[in-house]
Design goal:
Helix content is about 80%, strand content about 0%. By secondary structure, the protein is an all-alpha fold. The protein folds into 3 domains: about 70 residues, no CATH class; about 100 residues, Receptor-associated Protein (Up-down Bundle), CATH 1.20.81; about 70 residues. The two termini are about 40 Å apart.
Length: about 260
């Protein structure tokens, strides 16, 4: 896993790769053991097949271990979404500051105070500068571990402008406009996805369940089938799960943009 160290730093996890693997291994082992013991006690109460559970211990452990290894990726994606919500506004704020004659360092300090997600990264940069690190070097170090490609592009433009002596504001303006266009495309794509999702939601989560339960109640009166409260509760839980899945799909497909 050669990229694990970079992922941990992007995710803001202070553990070394060895420490993270060790913690993940132990967490997966404890969770797998706890789940198997819990199921064993339930099956033992009803005197069902209990020994077969221990066959699934390594399978469950491997599944949980590799699932927990994705934790840095989940944190990186979350941070990227938080940055995407502020990237355009923070970039335009920086351009206005620079065009108003504010020094680049002071503009970065002001951004760190006014934006929660992006501000943390700019504060790290300004803190390094306060400790004696040159601004160009502090920006170069930050670029490597920024979890957002758009944010990285902005820092690269600032770095290139510092190295070449060109106008920072003009370079940033072009990058911000490009980011806005890309976000507009994402919003339009999301809008096109909602139409088929809404149709499937109406069919699978509303029409079929309501008609299906009604037909089931009618059929139960003609055939020898007892439609008791347990069956109805199982159907209700299943429908609730379907509703949850649809809402999750819509939520996670939504672009991380403040409209």
């Amino acid at each position: 896993m050669p990229t694990l160290n970079t992922k941990l730093k992007k995710a803001g996890i202070d553990d070394t790769p060895a420490e993270f693997i060790k913690k993940t291994f132990l967490a997966a082992f404890y969770m797998a053991t706890g789940i198997i013991v819990f199921l064993f006690l339930i099956l033992a109460k009803y005197n069902l097949l209990k020994g077969i559970l221990f066959i699934f211990v390594p399978i469950l452990f491997i599944f949980l271990f590799f699932y927990m290894l994705k934790f840095p990726d989940i944190k990186i994606e979350k941070k990227e979404k938080e940055i995407s919500k502020e990237i355009v506004f923070a970039g335009r704020y920086l351009i206005i500051e620079l065009e108003s004659g504010v020094a680049l360092y002071n503009a970065l300090v002001n951004i760190s105070k006014n934006y929660e997600s992006i501000g943390k990264y700019f504060k790290e940069i300004t803190d390094k500068v306060d400790l004696g690190t040159p601004l160009e070097e502090a920006l170069n170090e930050a670029v490597e571990f920024i979890p957002s490609d758009d944010f990285r592009r902005i820092l690269w433009q600032i770095l290139n402008s510092l190295r070449t002596g060109s106008d920072v504001g003009q370079s940033l303006n072009a990058v911000i406009e490009q980011i806005v266009k890309e976000q507009t495309i994402k919003v339009n794509t999301y809008g096109r996805k909602l139409n088929p999702l809404a149709m499937f939601y109406m069919i699978i989560a509303i029409i079929l369940p309501s008609l299906g339960v009604t037909m089931l109640i009618i059929l139960s009166s003609f055939v020898e089938f007892e439609l008791n409260m347990t069956i109805l509760m199982v159907i209700a839980c299943f429908l609730g799960f379907i509703q949850f899945m649809f809402m999750s799909i819509i939520k996670f497909s939504r672009p991380a943009i403040d409209f």
